[in-house]
Design goal:
heterodimer; A: alpha/beta; Rossmann fold; six-stranded mixed β-sheet; four-stranded antiparallel β-sheet; 10 helices; about 35% helix; about 25% strand; B: mainly alpha; two-stranded antiparallel sheet; disordered C terminus
């Protein structure tokens, strides 16, 4: 895969997003290089999900720039961004509850028409998620939370993303299940997919990611490598529940 | 058709071929059976077929794409008035049926897109309110566009609309075979409408399993996720409104020609609700459900009315409840019973994909989770 050290895969510059009159994201900037795993941590309402949705194009931005592969994609609609390689696993998983597991996965390849390659990719996802393979004909709404999260990730993979946007994959799941999900995400990262991960579970996210950004009420307040941020007393106090 | 076959009780699963022939036989024999009870029953069957077409079209919008539309009857009105304008003495225009039908469909589709654009970002309750308003606006236009220029003839409606004429074959004329055998016009309309319904079912069935159908299903379940997997939700919504409206428009044109008369009265909010009830009653998002729901709910009130009026007369000596009031009462009662006993409709959508215990597990858990929130 072609990796260009000089220009990042994703560059966000002075991004501002507002809901009605309320500014949710107040001018943030960050970069992702190809192959990196980067996390965005912060408290509830800090603007993490908003940022992710804006990058995927499912939410309009107020001002600023989003560059992907060196091109400005501000005006590109969500379905075109997906075709360009940006896939979102939305908050709360966004499973199609009334479709079967297999249909959910196949919907991930909605914008592709290379059926032979799609079948091969499906097989790859099945080997990655053996639990899901057992449940293909089941209606997805009847799966457990962890299984739904796996389906959501598998579905995103079927679009063959270069950049995977993961929104709180650990939300509402038991610690053991979270571990399994992160194993899956890790194997995705190993395949060379660039990952931008949003998490409230800061400990987990920072251990997992190479770099991290800390968001607080719409702004990025801290940045550094995963281990640096984990060691940072401010981060430990704010997100890991330790006394300062 | 397969969904309909599977919906036949008992026989549907044991012997699909027999069930299929049973449906075909019943569909063909129905008007002859109805005729035994009087001419008006064949007429009611004809209307039931029109309701089926409406329910199929609305099911496409509400059931497939998940867009709640409370003003669907407006498209029926557009189709009916298109026919009335172009084939009646009102403007003294008499275009052939095969010219007007696509025009009626096209105008209705246009109306669908006109409704679709402003409601693109609305969901749930808000969408319901705007569509309800749209339905009323269309009706009020029909009611008031007789001044300063008389377009719709206002509350009097448009009379003496040309009957359906298939290349010189006038469906409003009885066919006389020999001395004492006639095929009544109502039968001709029945089979023509039946053909239209069958064509609609085939088209919609293809649509459901197409890329478009899958995109609608995804959008209905989770709009944000649908966008995230690359579905152009704006286009898909507009397409749902336009295609759904097309069926309404075609049914409306057939209605205008069949009845020979249109007036704003036929397109009230209550009619929109009646069609929606048919979709919900039958099972939302399910072709067979829309067909069965429309059939049952178009016939049941008439049946009960036939019983209720004489019953009231013998019991009380006079009619206490007007049949029209009774109809709404019965529809409401049917809906309440349905919600209590079979919340997913008579024929729940896609039950065939669930293992039984999974489905019941899901249905049992959902209300609890909602209550806990």
């Amino acid at each position: 895969m072609h990796t260009d050290q000089t220009s990042p895969l994703l560059r966000v510059h002075d991004l501002k997003i507002a809901y009605g009159g309320i500014q949710a994201v107040k001018g943030i900037g960050f970069e992702l290089h190809a192959g990196e795993t980067v996390c965005l941590i912060g408290a509830n309402g800090a603007g993490k999900t908003t940022t992710l949705n804006a990058i995927a194009g499912v939410l309009p931005i107020a001002s600023g720039d989003i560059h992907y592969k060196g091109e400005r994609i501000n005006a590109l609609p969500a379905h075109r961004r997906l075709r360009a390689g940006i896939a979102l696993v939305p908050e709360g998983r966004g499973i199609f509850t009334r479709l079967t597991v297999e249909e959910n996965l196949r919907m991930g390849a909605y914008s592709r028409n290379d059926s032979a390659a799609i079948e091969a990719d499906l097989e790859r996802v099945y080997t990655m998620l053996p639990r899901i393979k057992e449940r293909l004909p089941q209606v997805a709404g009847t799966l457990s939370g962890g299984e739904q999260q796996m389906v959501a990730i598998g579905r995103a993979l079927l679009s063959r993303p270069r950049l995977l946007l993961l929104d709180e994959p650990s939300m509402g799941l038991a610690p053991l299940v979270v571990e399994k999900i992160f194993e899956v995400v890790q194997s995705v990262a190993r395949e060379g997919v660039t990952i931008l991960l949003v998490e409230q579970n800061a400990n987990l996210a920072l251990e997992f990611a190479q770099r991290g950004y800390v968001m607080e009420s719409g702004k990025i307040t801290l940045t550094g490598s995963g281990s640096d941020l984990l060691a940072n007393p401010k981060v430990r106090a704010a997100y890991l529940g330790e006394e300062a | 058709m397969n969904e309909l076959v599977a919906a036949v009780p008992w026989l549907g699963k044991r012997n699909p071929t027999a069930a299929r022939w049973l449906i075909i036989l019943v569909a063909i024999a129905a008007p002859f059976i109805a005729w035994q009870f009087g001419r008006s029953w064949v007429r009611i069957l004809d209307f039931a077929l029109l309701y089926m077409m409406l329910a199929l079209g609305l099911n496409l919008v509400v059931g497939f794409a998940g867009l709640l539309d409370l003003g669907y009857i407006a498209f029926y009105a557009v189709g009916a008035y298109t026919f009335a304008f172009l084939a009646s003495p009102h403007f003294d225009v008499h275009l052939p049926f095969w010219v007007i039908l696509p025009l009626g469909a096209a105008f209705a589709a246009l109306a669908g897109v006109m409704l679709g654009f402003p409601v693109l970002r609305l969901r749930g309750d808000y969408l319901a309110i705007v569509t309800l308003g749209f339905g009323e606006i269309v009706r009020i236009f029909m009611l008031n566009l007789n001044y300063p220029v008389n377009i719709t003839n206002g509350p009097q409606g448009i009379n003496m609309i040309d009957p359906i004429n298939l290349f010189g074959w006038d469906l409003s004329r009885n066919i006389r075979i020999g001395e004492d055998f006639t095929i009544h016009s109502l039968f001709l309309y029945y089979y023509f409408f039946l053909a239209a319904v069958v064509a609609s079912i085939i088209f919609i069935q293809r649509l459901q399993i197409s890329r478009i159908g899958r995109a609608w299903a995804a959008m209905r379940d989770d709009e944000l996720a649908a966008k995230a997997i690359g579905i152009n939700t704006r286009d898909m919504k507009l397409l749902a409104f336009a295609l759904g409206a097309t069926f309404g428009g075609v049914a409306g044109a057939l209605f205008g020609a069949f009845q020979g008369f249109v007036s704003p009265e036929s397109f009230s909010l209550m009619e929109s609700i009646a069609v929606l009830t048919m979709v919900v009653f039958g099972g939302m998002g399910n072709l067979a459900g829309a067909v069965v729901g429309a059939f049952v709910l178009a016939l049941l009130p008439e049946l009960l009315r036939d019983v209720a009026v004489p019953l009231q007369q013998t019991l009380f000596g006079h009619v206490l409840l007007d049949p029209e009031v009774l109809r709404m009462l019965l529809l409401s009662l049917a809906m309440i019973l349905m919600m209590l006993l079979r919340p997913a409709g008579m024929i729940p959508a896609r039950a065939r994909y669930c293992h039984d215990h999974h489905l019941s597990h899901h249905l049992n858990n959902t209300p609890k989770r909602e209550a806990a929130k």
